[in-house]
Fold each of these.
Amino acid sequence: MDEMMLQKCIDAGLRMTSQREAIAQALDQSYDHPDAELLYERTNKIDSTISLATIYRTLGVFERAGLVQKVDVGDGKSHYETARDQHEHLVDTENGQIHEFKSEELTALLSQIADKMGFELTSHKLEVYGKKHGDVSCRCIQIKVY
Ligand SMILES: [Zn+2]
């Protein structure tokens, strides 16, 4: 499991230093959507020589290689997650919890919109913000706390 990101980095042809390996490992161990500072804290438990600047730089490298994605949860910081299956985020504005969900209807609708504009949908990114009402189960894939 710890090799997941590392293997993807190697497959992507990235030059791996021990620092990059530590950051990849910290990302693998993150089941939430950490921002750079939180990732810095986690990475430092593996390798205390890594600076916050290196974290930012490496996240940029991983992002350009398509291995991590930025998630905007509305707090003004960039949060990150390792690239996984297409899913959307619904952010609970009252407690900051991120509910991950998938919706075929949404993908179909977006493809229709793109089609009308003369485009073929290749990917999309969506963050939805909301406030819970009533006790309906959210039925999301998983709730992640950032
Ligand atoms: Zn996510």
Amino acid sequence: MQSLRYYRELIQKIDAFTDSVVSTYGNRLQCRKGCSSCCILQTIMPVELVPILQWYAAQPELIQNTITHKKSDSCIFLHLDSCIIYPVRPIICRTHGYPVLLHNNVDICPLNDGIQFEPQHILHLENCNTMLAAINILFIKEIHIPALQKERINLQAFFQSPESDILSVVHALKGY
Ligand code: SF4
């Protein structure tokens, strides 16, 4: 699917950006395993759910058990201050904490405040969001699975569906 290819390319660009920030500012950044202050994700676009579902399909019991036992308001994928879907996390999770330009202001996690970032290390978040929204529109046109034909998906509601329902979406995705 074209939309999934575009999504993967966007992720590669974002990861290249954050790799460059990390290699430049290193230990001065507080973003690292164990810091979960920004893990409050509730909804995502359906195109972002696809890699998560493919990840889920490989270990449904582990993921279901972790989600089922959640009691806090944090992201359903946060477990013991770690992300259980880290390799397939959505784009917002890949940019959180790092300097982003939003409405002509540089936004940064307070824990990273005080670092002087060079302009090339500031991500233009509105451009990213515009690209992601366009990719998601294309995805909704390309996909014919009703559960994924939505503007946004509530993670808690989706992953608290019966496991058979989730796996049937995974199965349907294999046709794409
Ligand atoms: S998906 Fe992972 S990185 Fe993103 S908010 Fe949830 S736990 Fe945090």
Amino acid sequence: MAESHLSPQRSAQGSVAEGFAFPVTVALTGASGAQYGLRLIEALVAANHEVWVMISKAAHLVIATETDVKLPAQPERLTDALSSRSGARPGQIRCFAREDWMAPVASGSGAPSAMVVCPCSTGSLSAIACGASNNLIERAADVALKERRTLVLVPRETPFSAIHLEHMLSLTRMGAVILPAAPGFYHQPASIDDLIDFIVARILNQLGIEHRLMPRWGESPASDGREGI
Ligand SMILES: Cc1cc2nc3c(=O)[nH]c(=O)nc-3n(C[C@H](O)[C@H](O)[C@H](O)COP(=O)(O)O)c2cc1C
């Protein structure tokens, strides 16, 4: 993978809002596994990061299908809803609309952020691999690639076609991290939450963000990881 230009130390200086650690952009697209993205937002808030959120139209449908979470589409109301469910401080979460080309993520001259597309549909995967930039999620990922910033994609589909696999290979070669929503079972998960946290912990590891969701390999288990992110 290409070296990230967004080390936590440098990013902290580039943070837009005072008092928060570096911004992380989280885009939820319409693959199954909305819970991974929602839990990631909670974990980033708990870790005191500024969180910039984009949710595609299809992702709203998946969230309504897979969860009991009710989220409005309008960005200001979405910001309020996500802030309230994650306990975010004022200004910690900012949500952007599908075509908000003035958002900081829309240009390389905007404040740098790491970006995670979680979950990542095969449609968005394809658009990002091809540089389509037809909406703000695709454009933000394009910016992350061209600026050599951290970009983590969490695809979920099964089985994968040659098209999906070729896009994943080309994105890996461009410096993105492909982190499939494929939780392991060696930590003996007792619940779906444990499976979700397995993936969210891996994403936080990629971002260089400390957490206690799961012990790292070779460490002894914490008493209750979900209590202390
Ligand atoms: C309930 C539901 C589950 C879906 N699951 C997946 C999936 O796991 N993977 C995938 O790539 N697409 C899945 N799709 C299809 C995508 O949502 C669809 O291709 C959409 O155009 C993606 O748009 P987006 O990338 O802009 O969010 C699902 C759709 C729905 C409604």
